[in-house]
Description:
The protein is α+β, with helices and mostly antiparallel strands. The chain has one domain. It has helices at about 15-25, 100-115, 155-175, and strands at about 5-10, 30-35, 35-40, 55, 75-80, 90-95, 120-130, 140-145, 150-155. The strands form two sheets. It has a six-stranded antiparallel sheet. Strands 3-2-4 form a three-stranded antiparallel sheet, with no helix packed on it. A hairpin with a 2-residue loop joins β2 (about 30-35) and β3. The longest helix has 22 residues, at about 155-175. The protein is globular and about 75 Å long.
Amino acid sequence: MADNYLQFSEIIPKLNPEEEAWLKEQLQPIRVFGQKEYPEDAAPAELADTKPDWAGVRFLRDSGDCDPDCDVLGFEYAFHDDHEPNGWGRHLWVYAEESGNPENVAWLVQKFLKTFRPDQCWSLTYAAICSRPRVGEFGGGAIFVTADEIKWQNAYDFVEEQHAAFKAKQTKKGKKS
C-alpha cells in the first residue's frame, strides 16, 4: 500500500502586532448559532446540546467552497520571530507534511492581503508525492494570490492542456495532407 501526500511550506513575513492579532483571530475555531459567533469552547451553557449553524475556523466561514461539515483546517501553522539570515521578521509559517489544503491557505492569505496589504502579492508552491514510485501519482503546482484574485497552476492540468494542444496540432496537420 502506498501513501499519497500533498506538502507545502511558506510564510507570511514581517507581521506587525495588528496583523498578527487579526491572523490569530481568523485561525480561531468557532461555533455559530444564528449570526452570533462563539469561540469553540465558549458557547453559552444553554446552547451546549444545540447543533451549531456553522462550525469551523473563522476565516473559512465566508468561503463558498468550504464544506460546513468539515472542521479540518487543512494545514498547520506557527508564529515565529525572525530567523536570521532570512530577514522575515515576525512571521506566520503555514505548512503541511501529509495532506495539506492549499485552497484554504490561499483563502486566508487573500483575506489578509485585502485587509492589510492590498498592493502586495503572495505565492505558494506545493508537491503531490507518493511513498512509492507509482506512475502518475507525482505532481505539484503553484498558487499566486493578490487581494483581488487567486490563480492556480497544477502539473496535472498543465500536462492535460499540453496533450490537448498537441493532439489538436496533429489533427490540423493531418487535415492539410
